[in-house]
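Exam prep: given the inputs below (a chain plus PAZ), describe the expected output before reading on.
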Amino acid sequence: MDLSSAECEDFFRNTAVPEHFAETSSDISQFVTKHNEVGRKIVLVTSGGTTVPLESRTVRYIDNFSVGTRGSVSAEEFLKRGYAVIFLHRLRSLEPFSRHLGNVIDMFTITPDGQVSVKSEYTCVVASCVTQYESVKKNGTLLRVTFTSVHEYLHLLRVCSQCLQVMGSKVMLYLAAAVSDFHIPASQMPEHKIQSSDGDLTLTLQLVPKMLKPLVKNWLPQAFIVSFKLETDSHLLIEKSRKALLAYKHQLVVANLLDKRKTEVVLVTMTTEQPIVLLPDEQAAGKEIEEKIVCELTKYHSEFCENSV
Ligand code: PAZ
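Solution:
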């Protein structure tokens, strides 16, 4: 569904803003001002899956598979390359640095004198994560913002984009979140928990308005925008990525198949297709494909900035 500006405004007017929206918006605005002033590039990384609530006082919702690996690993890679990162992610999905820690309770032990201590087998990983995290905290280069539902996600995506407008071409959007394509509009959602005593449940979901169009055209017309395309049928992948580029006129699509997403992606532009593959020996050495993806994208972004001045 292509959106007119009026339809877009209607969607946001009729959809409740996330909790603490004013405070979050102000945090985002301050973060952008601070990094813009020192000339640092900013990337907005979206990560994890959105939910589709079935009731406005939500008990049940539809969800998807995404756990936020792509986004959280990529955020670390952008930080390493000097970007400031707004990490817009699903609440309780994977986050940069802490993602390495797994089940934290297994990592601790109580010493005979009652002190909490990290078990020796975990000290290296804990030390490395804490060191990197402390450095990022000291530099103030990571801002974490959370969403749960697709409606919250879209409100936050819009406010991030509005705040980032001042950055011109020095901002990259890296839209790796798995955003629901279907939803129940707020106006059609029952308020209370759906009762099983009413019998079988039939749901009619509507298409979520495609916000990439207003985002590219109106919210961030000068930014370097990377969307992601996930498919399960390899025959559709490149064709659908190109279709998205044609429809939304942004710069690049990272195309991936569900089963191979951790080892193969293709960077698709209107004129090029660049496969990125994580080789078995790289995988065995603990390398992650996001290192290669981000390395390439930062080159594309530098070139984009140079051509924009
Ligand atoms: O979060 P994750 O690492 O489990 O999965 C990443 C991904 C497959 C959601 C991402 O690479 C992606 O393709 N996101 C866009 C999905 C879409 O087509 O809407």
